[in-house]
Amino acid sequence: MTDTHYFTGRAGQARAAAMKAKGMPSFRAHMGMAQEYERRARGFAPRHADQVVLDDTDD
What we know:
Layout lengths: L2 H18 L3 H18 L18
Helix pairs in contact: 1-2
């Protein structure tokens, strides 16, 4: 399995989890993970945790 296949699969899993999320904070977290996996599948370097902006609202 290549990195591209792995990250593409993980992106799909994260999107599926987002669709099942009970609230917006969970939805946003899973969608953020999906976007990061998609970035990595396209060959971009991983983002560092200190560069990720989290929404602190509790919708």
